Amino acid sequence: MEHTITRLVREAARLADVPFEAVGSPCKKRAYVRARWAVMLVAYRLKYTSPDIGQRIGGFDHSTVFNALRRGNELLDKGDKEFVGLVHGLMLMVSRKEGKPDGN
Q1: Could you tell me if residue 69 is left (phi over 0), alpha (psi between -120 and 50 degrees) or otherwise beta?
Q2: pLDDT tens column, 70-97
Q3: What is residue 96's predicted lDDT score, i.e. its pLDDT?
Q4: Contact, 64 vs 53, CB < 8 A?
Q5: Domains of the chain
Q6: pTM of the model
Q7: Residue 58 has what DSSP assignment?
Q8: Cα-Cα-Cα-Cα dihedral of 31, 37, 43, 45, to 10°?
Q9: For residue 82, what is the DSSP state?
Q10: Contacts 24+ apart (CB under 8 A), 58-63
Q11: Each residue of 35-72: pLDDT tens digit?
């Protein structure tokens, strides 16, 4: 079964209409960064540690994850519709997956 963080990356790439590989890349294009931040934010809410999140997404340092959490929360607080929708879509995917038995 695919790891939860990998599923989050895949779904974020789909929702943000960016390549899967771009989410875990160091590229600083806005769409890639926001997809990456959303994955990090949701993974942290799912109780993954910052080092684990960073390593699984693309080999990022834990401080990069903390920066993403700070910046992502700022976007949520501002009500950025695009980012809020992305995080909501990821949380929805997680909640749907939790309700299904493994393998579905």
Answers
A1: alpha
A2: 999 999 999 999 999 999 999 999 998 7
A3: 86
A4: no
A5: 4-98 (1.10.1750.10)
A6: 0.90
A7: H
A8: -130
A9: H
A10: 58/23, 58/24, 58/25, 58/26, 59/24
A11: 999 999 999 999 999 999 999 999 999 999 999 999 99
